[in-house]
């Protein structure tokens, strides 16, 4: 059955599928479930290499119990624009958050990033984020500080002088460039270490290898990001002009 919660038997099938190296889409097809359901299930329960059916089932039961204990703070579900299915949007936001967490982003930062990314406006105030995510303003402030440091979001003032947090269309370009700059700093420090430890020593040679590898990665990342933005943004602009 496509709807409803996953059963323990389905989780065992997911574990077997992962062990066999099957893609999420193939596991979903065999279980007659949406791929997003399988992705969310796996990523929130240890990822593809650590997923265990029994542990995942118990964790889901604990989460369901906690949800029953804490009644919703706001009645009902807010209506969605453009005729979207509110439950599907909620599930997708949860999946998006889980995948961001699996990439290394902390949980609250992932929740804020997903929440901002899924708004049509691409921006929310701190109070709007706190209300949507049901967390404290302090949690939002901490998450925004992290996301700003990684070039995922920026701040701006609206007509009412309220501070808004914005995700731009080129957010991933900006983040990739910030990552390339961070890697370049590691390269510089590694090469300083070569001079301190001596280029002919094992430790010095190790640091030189680190510097060479990361230097190549940093330059390749920046070059690929620049090329992708130029090509993809040009295509998007041409398509928009043609539609007009």
Automatic annotation (TrEMBL):
Pfam family membership, one: HTH_38
TM stretches of this protein: none
Domain Transposase IS30-like HTH: 5-45
InterPro entries in the record: HTH_MarR-typ, IS30-like_HTH, Transposase-Integrase, WH-like_DNA-bd_sf, WH_DNA-bd_sf
Residue segments, region Disordered: 57-88
Protein name: Helix-turn-helix domain-containing protein
Domain called HTH marR-type: residue spans: 117-159
